[in-house]
Amino acid sequence: MLENRHVISVRDFTREEIEVILDHAERMEEVYERGGDDRLSGKVLATLFFSPSTRTRLSFETAMLRLGGDVISLVGKEAASTAKGENLADTVRTVEKYCDAIVLRHPKEGAARLAADYASVPVINAGDGANQHPTQTFLDLYTIRKEKGRIEGLKVGLMGDLKYGRTVHSLAYALALFGAEIHLISPEELRMPRYIVRELEEAGAADVEEHRDVRPILGELDVLYVIRIQKEMFPDPEEYERVKGSYRITRELIEEHAREDLIIMHPLPRVDEVDPDVDELPQARYFDQVRNGVVVRMALLDLLLGGEE
Prior knowledge:
Blueprint: H1 15-33, E1 44-49, H2 55-66, E2 70-75, H3 88-95, E3 101-106, H4 111-118, E4 123-128, H5 134-148, E5 155-159, H6 166-177, E6 181-185, H7 194-203, E7 207-211, H8 215-218, E8 223-226, H9 237-243, H10 251-257, E9 263-265, H11 286-305
Parallel strand pairs: 1-2, 1-3, 3-4, 5-6, 5-8, 6-7, 8-9
Helix pairs in contact: 1-5, 1-11, 2-11, 3-4, 5-6, 5-11, 6-7
């Protein structure tokens, strides 16, 4: 079903196809726990990261190595021939001669789609500007389903920079596909773009509500997904200065207002929006997300390159 597919946007996948990935990730748990196997021996993954990354790049490379494959990497704009004026299309057409799949992170929206137009091997979007980050969404969905047993009907709060946050753009759409109830929590200046809100309603969300403050809704939530205010995404530095530090999740807030079975998620890195004291609470799941990212990306690479379903 997914062999040799490009992975550019969550919108390119049906709910059934996403469930194939999540189900395969469950099967990959055993492979991960025993340290991996060699099912992708002889395959090569190229990771091209023109924007900073820790978790996404390292988890993809770890996933490939745990499945017996090899990895080649290009990190930073200054390390690529694009610094000499080469366009992205030529870079992709060159790199594909060395590998069986490409993972691409790029600062410009639409870069991954452009790369896929020129590549004859699968291109996986690891984040293109403020646009999409589909594999983060897959691991987020996997974490929710693993912790809560389901996605449909859950009350999920998405909190923070909903205007520029590519992780929540992808995740909100996927949650709508699964029939979740979505609560959008942000400062007025960082509201979810109107076209995305309309898409959520059309995609099948049980409900979509917007809030300026988390406190009134926190006690009703099954999942609270927090993202940082992303300074690097703001075209206007003054806009960032107006909204930075406008929200913070603290231990006191969670203990006083949240349910015991709430799970708190964050794609990381964080700045000051989640207090370190929250890490000790049983609701914290953001470092579990890091671990789950390897399992999900193992599953995805296996499906794209090995065809295992």
